[in-house]
């Protein structure tokens, strides 16, 4: 993944902009899944990038069609069949900077079949923060807590908010299943509404699978029949364990059915945009 795009110029050397985005984390970004060389949910990501830029006072002057073109150039130059692109808009001195970088995608179907082990943590998500609902470059707290979780043998860590309700993971959105109803924390719990989270909710409603957005406690998490998490690169990922609690995974679960519907609806295995 050697090639990057910096303000539309493709280069093999990473040009690190010494702007406020680099110095202070003053910027926003999107991570876009690449499957079979195609961009997944590109329009969704561009809409959220635009909205995040407005909140942060950033000026996104590059049109989505041009960003798409630059993304496809990076995919071609890096010969990406499966991976991810990060589109970062950062605060510049005279004009804001747009950086596109590439990475591998380590989530695979074997991980889906096995399920992940995740944990909760003692840090509190501030649901009133201006940054909590946008994908900003200020990810240090998330990374520190994620690293702590990984050191303990877990793949992800889940936040509660200041009122004691479940919010989100360091890198994911959370879903619980109880008695055939899918439950996920509502936006006012203090979370970034992920692209795949939103698509899953849309999918459940279209297929008449009961879905609720609300306020959920640790007791409800413990009592859940199934748990899964989502983000753009992992899509839908079953969870087999949260802390000391264990949950159902496998082909007979509702999570497995939802994933099958997701793949069928948007054809992500075929690299749909």
Task: Give a structural overview.
With 273 residues, this protein is an alpha+beta fold. The protein has two domains: 4-103, Aminotransferase class 4, branched-chain amino acid transferase, N-terminal domain (D-amino Acid Aminotransferase, Chain A, domain 1, 2-Layer Sandwich); 109-267, D-amino Acid Aminotransferase, subunit A, domain 2 (D-amino Acid Aminotransferase, Chain A, domain 2, Alpha-Beta Barrel). 31% of the residues lie in helices and 31% in strands. The chain has eight helices and 15 strands. It has helices spanning 20-24, 42-56, 64-78, 109-114, 140-151, 195-206, 218-223, 254-266, and strands at 4-6, 9-11, 27-35, 38-39, 82-90, 97-103, 116-125, 156-161, 166-169, 173-178, 181-185, 211-214, 226-231, 235-242, 245-246. The strands form two sheets. Strands 7, 8, 9, 10, 11, 12, 13, 14 and 15 form a nine-stranded mixed sheet that branches. A six-stranded antiparallel sheet has the order 2-1-6-5-3-4. A hairpin with a 2-residue loop joins strand 10 (173-178) and strand 11. Helix 6 packs across helix 8. The longest helix is centred in the first third of the chain and has 15 residues, at 42-56. It is globular, with a radius of gyration of 19 Å. The model has no long low-confidence stretch (mean pLDDT 93).
